């Protein structure tokens, strides 16, 4: 069971080419690879930004990004935002909530930025904002639970 659990986390990798060259991503995470792929990097100010390029497969029947895709990306961003607090530990999402603020069109650069509002222990609180080409699309809050080291 331990080997199966360890394998399911994927491996942190760095893109070596394309639009997101130099950005990090989880290689081998089946859901994130299929739904994204999503990337993140550290900014000059020490914060983290997550990003991906919106594609037609991310859209809903109305032609804008599906709300489930935005929430999936927000869930990814929770962990990127909390990278330093997590310090390499594995964790799970306990809660994720969001308020939809505007649409994201196909082709848009989708980004998420935020902050840890409380961290350091087993429970980490995060808030953030997802934008599409710089326009607010989703405000989110989440709670992450650090897992015990094995």
Automatic annotation (TrEMBL):
<dbReference type="InterPro" id="IPR006683">
    <property type="entry name" value="Thioestr_dom"/>
</dbReference>
<dbReference type="Pfam" id="PF03061">
    <property type="entry name" value="4HBT"/>
</dbReference>
<dbReference type="InterPro" id="IPR029069">
    <property type="entry name" value="HotDog_dom_sf"/>
</dbReference>
<protein>
    <submittedName>
        <fullName>PaaI family thioesterase</fullName>
    </submittedName>
</protein>
<feature type="domain" description="Thioesterase">
    <location>
        <begin position="62"/>
        <end position="131"/>
    </location>
</feature>
